[in-house]
Write a structure and sequence with these properties.
With 345 residues, this protein is of the alpha+beta class. It has helices at residues 5-13, 61-78, 97-113, 163-177, 185-196, 202-208, 222-232, 248-257, 261-270, 286-291, 323-336; strands spanning 23-25, 33-34, 40-50, 82-92, 117-125, 129-139, 154-158, 214-218, 235-240, 276-281, 298-306, 316-319. Helix 3 (97-113) links the parallel strand 4 and strand 5. Helix 2 (61-78) packs parallel to helix 3 (97-113) and helix 5 crosses helix 8 (248-257). The longest helix is centred in the N-terminal third of the chain and has 18 residues, at 61-78. Bound molecules: adenosine-5'-diphosphate and magnesium ion. Residues 9, 13, 27-30, 88, 90, 118, 120-123 line the site of adenosine-5'-diphosphate.
């Protein structure tokens, strides 16, 4: 059933996510009034999801609500910050209540998990697009950047990059064929979930704010985003292909669908949408890094190096004990090293 703009804000978004004592004034006025804690820097991020660009047509609304917030929380995580407040600008072709209820449920569940309040937004009619802004804070001067890494630092990544891109491909194939492969269905389902319900690594990001020299979240693919971090730091990077983590679910997909190693590497190196963290840690702090393993899943995948000697040299190099594997990865890299660029040729 259709519902009017003001009724929908009231019903679905006035009480969405956490309620926080530092929200002096939330949804309902011309603006929200928020009270940041003294001694902290404010961190602000924004990300937009457009139907057909960032998620397939007819995606489950619960997943869209989750992802719209998750991609922003991932940016907050990469800054080493704590998320507190969010704003939601929704552009909808129509106001269908069941869609709105599921969207708000997905948004709210993740917001509650991370104690994030929804404090305002905007609602307009048009092709489905969702812009979210999240505000958070970090102890003054302690925000993590892309730019602090130095040659010799360890290069690490959380989780198992590649899963979300593999999951997206499965979702698209399933939509086309109408049925998932029977073989290893649970594993395939778990990949699709990595795309639909990514986990922002906020707790890890907070730990890294006093340990890492640089950090970036992987939204556009491991290689491209490591390249951005290295460039911002005035470094290069060397990835050990034999150290790259690969989930058992991705391995199952490769077997079930008979994918080539090149395609598998393409997911791991170039697949976007994982929202894992890539970060650099000075070698002198390796034991503190090791202590993080108790609570966080991550892998040391290489190191930061000195900057490439000239513009034509690769920013990120890769090596393996298997020369054929290195050659495959270099071929993948040619296709994906720049990461996803909406206005790219
Ligand atoms: P204005 O016309 O002053 O911009 P609106 O009528 O657009 O105000 O919004 C009324 C209130 O509802 C504001 O507090 C606004 O922040 C909030 N709001 C509007 N849309 C949303 C939304 N999708 N989610 C959360 N809050 C919203
Ligand atoms: Mg408005």
């Amino acid at each position: 059933m259709a519902i009017g703009e003001f009724a929908l804000i009231e019903r679905y978004f006035r009480h969405c996510g956490a309620s926080r004592a530092d929200v002096v004034l939330g949804v309902g006025d011309d603006g929200a009034i928020l009270r940041p804690p003294p001694g902290f820097d404010l961190v602000a991020v924004s990300d937009t999801l457009v139907e057909g660009v960032h998620f397939p047509l007819n995606s489950p609304p619960r997943s869209i609500g989750h992802r719209a917030l998750a991609v922003n929380l991932s940016d907050i995580a990469a800054m080493g910050a704590t998320a507190a407040w969010s704003l939601l600008a929704l552009t909808l072709p129509r106001t269908e209540e069941s869609w709105l209820a599921d969207f708000a449920a997905g948004y709210s569940a993740l917001a509650l998990e991370h104690d994030v309040a929804l404090v305002g937004g905007d609602t307009t009619r048009g092709p489905l697009a969702i812009n979210v802004q999240v505000l958070g804070f970090v102890p003054a001067g302690r925000g993590l950047r892309r730019s602090g890494a130095q040659a010799g630092d360890l290069l690490c990544v959380s989780g198992t990059p590649g899963d979300a891109a593999a999951g997206l491909r499965l979702l698209q194939a399933t939509a086309a064929s109408g049925a998932a492969a029977a073989d290893g269905r649970d594993a395939l389902r778990s990949l699709a979930r990595r795309f639909e319900y990514p986990t922002p690594r906020l707790a890890l990001g907070r730990e890294l704010s006093s340990l890492a020299s640089a950090c970036i979240d992987i939204s556009d693919g491991l290689l491209g985003d490591v390249g951005k971090m290295a460039a911002a730091s005035g470094c290069g990077a060397l990835i050990d292909l034999d150290a790259l983590p690969r989930s058992s679910a991705l391995a199952t997909l490769v077997r079930a669908e008979g994918l080539s190693e090149r395609e598998a590497l393409g997911f791991v190196l170039g697949g976007g949408d994982d929202y894992e963290l890539a970060f650099a840690v000075p070698r002198a702090r390796e034991s503190e890094l090791a202590a993080l393993r108790e609570h966080h899943e991550f892998t040391i995948i290489g190191e930061l190096t000195t900057a490439p000697a000239n513009d034509r040299a690769a920013r990120v190099n890769m090596q393996s004990v298997d020369a054929a594997r290195t050659a495959l990865a270099v071929a993948c890299a040619a296709a994906c090293a720049e990461g996803f660029d909406h206005f790219g040729a």
